[in-house]
Amino acid sequence: LALVSTVAVLVVACPCAMGLATPAAIMVGSGRAAELGVLFRKGEALEALSHVDTVVFDKTGTLTLGRPELTDLEPAPGRDAAAVLRFAAGADAGSEHPLAAAILAAAKSRGLEYSPATGFEAIPGYGVQATVDGHVVLLGAERLLARENISVDALTERAAALAQRARTPIYLAVDGAAWGVLGVADPLKPESAAVVTALKARGLRVGMITGDSVRTAQAIARQAGVDDVEAEVLPSGKAAAV
Length: 242
Prior knowledge:
The chain is an alpha+beta fold and about 240 residues long. Helix 4 crosses helix 5 (about 100-110) and helix 7 (about 155-165) runs parallel beside helix 9. It has a 6-stranded antiparallel beta sheet with strand order 2-7-6-5-4-3. A 3-stranded parallel beta sheet has the order 1-8-9. It is built from 10 helices and 9 strands. It is elongated. About 45% of the residues lie in helices and about 25% in strands. Strand 6 and strand 7 (about 175-185) form a beta hairpin. The chain has helices spanning about 1-35, 45-50, 60-65, 80-90, 100-110, 140-145, 155-165, 190-200, 215-225, 240, and strands at about 55-60, 70-75, 120-125, 125-130, 135-140, 165-175, 175-185, 205-210, 230.
């Protein structure tokens, strides 16, 4: 009788306990994670996390501070540096991208006046196209100018040197001709390298996916201690890269 009563209590009580304990554990776990800046889309993600063997980071604003600054300005031969920055700021006046904010801040700090663009168009993964003072301006990654068959041969070495120093090269073209390349730096977060080291110590593989150039991505990855890098990935291709 005692055995039957005990089993009956367990059969009745355990599903109830599980039904109460599981949601409570999920709430406490996800709530504490949120306090630390970690968001889970759904409860199943918590369970799946125990089977994860690879952690993949985005670069800008995740491993880096997400507050880039203009550090270099390299005009093409025969072009004026101030004019390059003026056109770049005009084209980026309608953009909300962090790199655009860096260019606009640099123009403001140097007291440059520029005309805001008309016909502004953001091209995800490439850059922007706009009309500034009647001139067609392209501003963005090298692939943007390559898509328009604009040669950047005169700027290739300088762009490579910028990328080697973990700068993001941003090309400027005006009316179908390359005018210059701007270098923007976005430093690592102070804790990024320690986080990567801690994840590796747990036996996890750590990677990084970014739309930035290969050289810039590799320079940042070296600083953070990340081994696996996928660079020059368009926003639409990041899920496939994962």
